[in-house]
């Protein structure tokens, strides 16, 4: 309760020390009690609302500051990530530069070594024993190298070659297992091959991957080298680690005379690679009609299939997909090969493991090429 003047309605506390009331007929205040609970409640509600508003403003301010701090944190994180990306990029560029520098240095060293090796070969040829002895004392490179073995045992004997025979072995190998005979056979050096065979080189020595001198000669079509090796006892049916024999290599690359020579020497015309592919399949896929004919006449199975069920006829059809309208001669070779295989008894309706037939291949790719 509060006391107010019943005339001017002023609160008693507002007029302390002043008893005069301009509204009173007596000129003086007359105070009477008034129920102010509703007013106080309203004031308290107002005050509470103001406090809530103030608290809300403080909360919003705190949230804004928190968001600002989060944005700054995210910005700092983005800058950190950007700096890290730039650092990684710089590191990658540095590593790339190092790799290129190492590669360049390796190529430079290899070029220097190749030049020294070539010079050493010339010294062997010219019989410059004094210079050879100087090089041997430096130990700049391995003398018992397949490249030098061939030079030592080939050509006219001279003081240098006779001296070097103390240091080189006829069966010397490089890091890949290559021998002098394999190198000579690969490059078609018939006279060097004969010299090495005559000196006792192992004609069946194989590289780390299993391929031999005969396989290399057959792959590159060196007929006389193949004959020399076969006469010296080379195994015509030996195969490298993936199952490739010499005949298959010659058939793949279209060396008809080599194929005939190997067949005459007893090569198995139906030998298959680890994946089941045969020499006939290779020849058919390359469109080598004459080789297909020679293999079939020698007993090659026209319906043999590889591990996925594809036959030689299917390979002829499959390889059409790698042709375009510009490959007219290749297309003709493949179609002629397919026609021959069909005449030789190839089954046009046989299905591979994918359910496709040679006939479907031929129709599909011939249609795409508008043949």
Identify the notable features of this structure and list them briefly.
371 residues; mainly alpha; Serine Threonine Protein Phosphatase 5, Tetratricopeptide repeat; two-stranded antiparallel ribbon; 15 helices; 2 strands; elongated
Element layout with pairings:
Elements: E1 2-5, E2 31-34, H1 37-126, H2 129-138, H3 146-153, H4 159-164, H5 180-187, H6 190-198, H7 213-219, H8 223-231, H9 246-252, H10 256-264, H11 279-286, H12 289-297, H13 312-318, H14 328-343, H15 358-368
Antiparallel strand pairs: 1-2
Task: Name the helicity range.
Answer: 55-70%
How many β-strand runs? 2
Q: State the secondary-structure class.
A: mainly alpha
SSE run = EEHHHHHHHHHHHHHHH
Count the helices. How many?
A: 15
Strand content: under 5%
**CATH homologous superfamily name of the domain at 141-268?**
Ankyrin repeat-containing domain
User: Class of the domain at 141-268, according to the CATH hierarchy?
Assistant: Mainly Alpha
Distance between the termini: 114 Å
């Amino acid at each position: 309760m509060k006391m107010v003047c019943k005339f001017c309605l002023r609160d008693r506390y507002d007029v302390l020390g002043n008893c005069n009331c301009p509204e009173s007929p007596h000129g003086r205040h007359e105070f009477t009690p008034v129920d102010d609970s509703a007013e106080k409640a309203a004031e308290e509600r107002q005050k509470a609302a103001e406090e809530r508003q103030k608290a809300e403003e403080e909360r919003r301010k705190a949230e804004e500051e928190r968001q600002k701090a989060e944005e700054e944190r995210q910005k700092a994180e983005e800058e950190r990530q950007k700096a890290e990306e730039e650092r990684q990029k710089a590191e990658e560029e540095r590593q790339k530069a190092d790799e290129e520098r190492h590669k360049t240095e390796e190529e430079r060293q290899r070029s220097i070594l190749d030049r020294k090796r070539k010079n050493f070969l010339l010294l062997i040829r010219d019989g410059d024993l004094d210079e050879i002895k100087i090089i041997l004392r430096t130990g700049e490179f391995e003398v018992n190298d397949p490249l030098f073995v061939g030079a030592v045992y080939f050509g006219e004997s001279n003081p240098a070659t006779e001296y070097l025979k103390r240091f080189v072995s006829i069966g010397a190998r490089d890091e890949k297992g290559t021998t002098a005979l394999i190198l000579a056979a690969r490059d078609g050096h018939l006279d060097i091959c004969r010299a090495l065979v005559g000196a006792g080189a192992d004609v069946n020595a194989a590289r780390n991957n299993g391929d031999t001198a005969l396989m290399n000669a057959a792959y590159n079509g060196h007929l006389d080298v193949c004959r020399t090796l076969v006469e010296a006892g080379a195994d015509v049916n030996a195969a490298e680690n993936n199952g490739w024999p010499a005949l298959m290599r010659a058939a793949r690359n279209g060396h008809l005379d080599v194929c005939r020579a190997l067949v005459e020497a007893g090569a198995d015309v139906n030998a298959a690679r680890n994946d089941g592919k045969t020499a006939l399949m290779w020849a058919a896929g390359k469109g080598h009609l004459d080789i297909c004919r020679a293999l079939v006449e020698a007993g090659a199975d026209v319906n043999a299939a590889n591990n996925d069920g594809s036959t030689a006829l299917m390979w002829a059809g499959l390889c059409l997909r790698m042709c375009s309208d510009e490959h007219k001669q290749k297309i003709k070779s493949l179609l002629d090969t397919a026609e021959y295989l069909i005449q030789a008894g190839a089954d046009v309706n046989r299905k591979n493991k994918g359910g496709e037939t040679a006939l479907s291949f031929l129709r599909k790719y011939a249609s795409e090429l508008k043949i």
